[in-house]
Design a protein that fits this description.
mainly alpha; AhpD-like; 61% helix; 0% strand
Length: 186
């Protein structure tokens, strides 16, 4: 990302009690990711958002690999470099290969995807482009997922669409610790 942050990360020496409560254990970390230090600029919002984000990342009914695939795709569609870098690291931990992560930018038309992966990518593209999962994709996903998983899928994509907008609009810079990745957009 070339732009300077529009909302700079809050420096640890500026953390007050409200910020520390919002950040929780992260407040005492040696290094805090730019996303959290930026969101700490609005501690009440961040404190209220955190349980929702924790559900998406840790309590969702989706498999971690499936979750990360759609997060990476919505990050790619939004050209959200920070989101893509952060979730490249998480995606590898959840079982995505570096090749799969690079192919996320191509989307569902890449012939190497499994049928389920293609459906997940199509659903993400449809939500991004049309605001809803199309009937054909929905029917295909129902073969693999129960009702709660389908709900978690839509909410995951929607959540990370919103987060991508925020990261791009705020100008959050990619953390130095994140692995360098092939970013096809300039």
């Amino acid at each position: 990302m070339n732009q300077e942050p529009r909302i700079p990360p809050l420096a640890p020496e500026a953390f007050d009690d409200e910020v520390r409560r919002a950040l929780g254990p992260r407040a005492d970390a040696e290094q805090i990711d730019n996303v959290f230090a930026t969101f700490a600029q609005h501690p009440d919002l961040f404190r209220r958002y955190s349980p929702w984000g924790a559900h998406i990342l840790g309590k969702s009914t989706l498999d971690g690999r499936e979750r990360e695939l759609v997060i990476l795709r919505i990050g790619s569609l939004n050209r959200a470099e920070y989101e893509f870098a952060q979730h490249t690291e998480i995606g590898v931990l959840e079982g995505l290969t570096r090749d799969e992560i690079a192919r996320v930018h191509v989307g569902p038309t890449d012939p190497a995807w499994s049928d389920l992966d293609r459906l997940l990518l199509e659903a993400t593209d449809e939500l991004f482009e049309n605001g809803r999962v199309g009937d054909t994709s929905w029917a295909g996903l129902r073969v693999h997922f129960d009702q709660r998983q389908l709900m978690d899928l839509v909410f995951t994509i929607g959540n990370y669409n919103m987060i991508s907008w925020a990261l791009n609009s705020f100008g959050v810079q990619v953390d130095k610790r994140l692995d360098q990745h092939p970013w096809p957009f300039t």
